[in-house]
């Protein structure tokens, strides 16, 4: 990133307040939440920058043709604009860059991870009135055009899938099966094609950031704020609290980390005393670091 320094503690607290408020709203704004994630990573992204990113999505949407017609026509129109004219796409090297998970940087670079390029496709197409939704295939996020549900269980009638990472290529035949098999070695199930809710998309974005940071111990600060934002989502895995506690210990915050390990152990004890005692042992080890 051009300016990787984090925001001030006061700015960070404000961003988290706004993130939690938006995540709990009746209709969470996917682009807004992703931009708040970006502002947590990049201290130079101020409110004017957040507004500019939203306006860029509006500008791109304004370049789409008026109601092109069928799902196939929508998919082709968005591909022609974003993939071909604007050059949004991804390459393997993007997986090594934090900015590939930050919406404002993806809008600037026109490169990113599959899920963040999909957010661009979703937000631009949605603004233009397209029937569009995200599809969280394992290991590779894509988008769908058409009705969110078919006439029967698992039916894809009238729906078209497209891959923004590949410039918006329309998936045909067994392309989705190949993507899933490449990521998991397993087959495609109908449930994998269900529309992804905005908060599920944001949770997956944060999971990608946490994975990026976990591979870089020197960037534990990034992992910590990504966990803390995930904890602000209305629904989150309880294990995130354990992950946060361990990361605090890793960062040398032994007393705070130990206290959170002990609190997590009390929760786990209700279902698995053996695991709870293991976590208490980690807490004791953390406190011993102070001696």
UniProtKB/TrEMBL annotation:
Region described as Disordered: spans on this chain: 1-23
Biased composition regions of type Basic and acidic residues, renumbered to the chain: 11-23
Q: Name one Pfam family in it.
A: Transglut_core2
The UniProt family comment states:
Belongs to the UPF0162 family.
In terms of PANTHER family, this protein maps to: F-BOX ONLY PROTEIN 21, SI:DKEY-261L7.2
Q: What is this protein called in UniProt? A: Protein SirB1 N-terminal domain-containing protein
Q: What is the lineage of its organism?
A: Bacteria, Bacillati, Actinomycetota, Actinomycetes, Kitasatosporales
Q: Which residues form the Protein SirB1 N-terminal domain?
A: 53-207
